[in-house]
Write a structure and sequence with these properties.
The protein is mainly alpha-helical. It has one domain. Helices cover 66% and strands 3% of the residues. The protein contains 14 helices and four strands. The strands form two sheets. A two-stranded antiparallel sheet has the order 1-4. The chain has a two-stranded antiparallel sheet with strand order 2-3. The longest helix has 28 residues.
């Protein structure tokens, strides 16, 4: 069946289809598909082990997947000015909710990160990250080129507040992601390299202080350096999964490690992929994540709009670093940290936050998006595409 979308078609769907970055969208669609596929492989054994209905996690993920996809597509169709407004609203709302966790969140494994509304749980820090990037990018983009210091100071104050709240939860993983994105924004925003070096030194000093004063941080780092110093059960089983899977895997549904791995459906779904589908499937996932990040940076370089440049760079940095951290933990290349694999791991808050993040990226990287809603009827080329 041939369905033609002409350049002269002024419908919203046609405008979206012609201006969207299909490479980024395609990678995201494939990652979402991989997440659905792997949910059936990884989550049933976990549900059975916990005494839940076999497809419990799959059904819950499906409930979040519908609003997540809707949010992603809705945001991807918005003009830049609305992305900026929504980013400010998300940042403000997330800051309020993160602050609320200190009073309303139950303590789980020594941390207060979750808010509960009936059976639904929400991790506000997931939404703080994209909102923070948009606000910081907007401030830096509007800075006076002759004197950027007020913008740098304002952004630094915002980062200090956001990072401070995350550390108090404590959530050092999200703090690391926020700090990495903030560093990229400052570098691209023109902060002198000397001060970037000072910031790196202070971050290192903060890590040392956290190691010395926060017991669970010390425990995780000690176990990473010396596995015999503590429990490394999940990481050891993840490494077994990579060993058992080899190049082509044992076959879908044939994995055994997922039956004894507590977080097989969340933090260690990459290990399940390795055992059942093999090394090449893992490399394919890696290529999809790299495709989103590299394409995002490429499109950011193409535009002359400083807000778009900074926003896209910061957002894809969040996406890329979260992917790297998850995969590195699975491979025991860094200390254990509870962090989902974007669009692949089970987790409602993560899925919705990632939908917001990548919906914004798709909106900001659309071709001629700044005037796509105000073109004169005769200003477009007459061309059609066959689908």
């Amino acid at each position: 069946m041939n369905f033609k979308l002409a350049r002269t078609d002024r419908s919203a769907i046609s405008e979206w289809a012609w201006t969207i970055d299909r490479t980024i969208l395609g990678c995201i669609v494939l990652l979402i598909g991989a997440g659905i596929f792997l949910a059936f492989a990884a989550s049933p054994p976990v549900a059975d082990r916990l005494g839940l209905e076999t497809f419990h996690f799959i059904k819950r993920q499906a409930l979040f997947l519908i609003p997540a996809i809707t949010t992603l597509l809705f945001l991807s169709a918005l003009p830049i000015v609305w992305i900026k407004r929504i980013g400010f609203a998300v940042c403000a709302g997330a800051m309020v909710l993160v602050f609320a966790t200190f009073f309303l969140s139950p303590e789980i494994k020594g941390a207060t990160r979750w808010l509960y509304v009936g059976p639904v749980s929400l991790q506000p820090s997931e939404f703080l990250k994209p909102g923070f990037v948009i606000v910081t990018a907007a401030i830096l983009a509007q800075a006076n080129p002759a004197n950027r210091w007020p913008a740098f100071i304002l952004c630094g104050a915002l980062f200090a507040v956001c990072a401070g709240m995350l550390v108090m939860q404590p959530d050092f993983g999200q703090t690391f992601l926020l700090a990495t994105a903030f560093s990229v924004l400052l570098f691209l925003g023109g902060l002198p390299r000397v001060l970037i070096g000072v910031g790196a030194f202070l971050s290192g000093a903060g890590s040392i202080i956290a190691y010395q004063t926060v017991p669970h941080v010390k425990s995780r780092i000690d176990r990473f350096i010396n596995p015999d110093s503590g429990d490394t059960y999940q990481v050891d089983r993840a490494l077994d999964a990579f060993q058992y899977g080899g190049a082509f895997g044992r076959g879908l549904g044939e994995g055994v490690v997922k039956r004894i791995l507590p977080d097989a459906h969340t933090d260690f779904v990459f290990a399940v992929t390795a055992e059942e589908l093999g090394l090449f499937a893992c490399l394919l996932l890696l290529a999809l994540f790299a495709g989103v990040v590299l394409r995002g940076f490429y499109r950011a370089m193409e535009t002359a709009d400083p807000f778009v440049q900074l926003s896209v760079a910061g957002l894809v940095t969040l996406f890329g670093m979260q992917s790297v951290v998850n995969m590195a933990v699975n491979l025991s290349l860094m200390p254990a940290k509870g962090m989902t694999l974007p669009f692949v791991s089970y987790g409602g808050s993560s899925l919705l936050a990632l939908a917001i993040t990548m919906g914004m990226v798709l909106a900001l990287t659309r071709t001629n998006v700044s005037n796509s809603f105000s073109r004169a009827p005769g200003s477009v080329r007459v061309k059609a595409v066959t689908i």
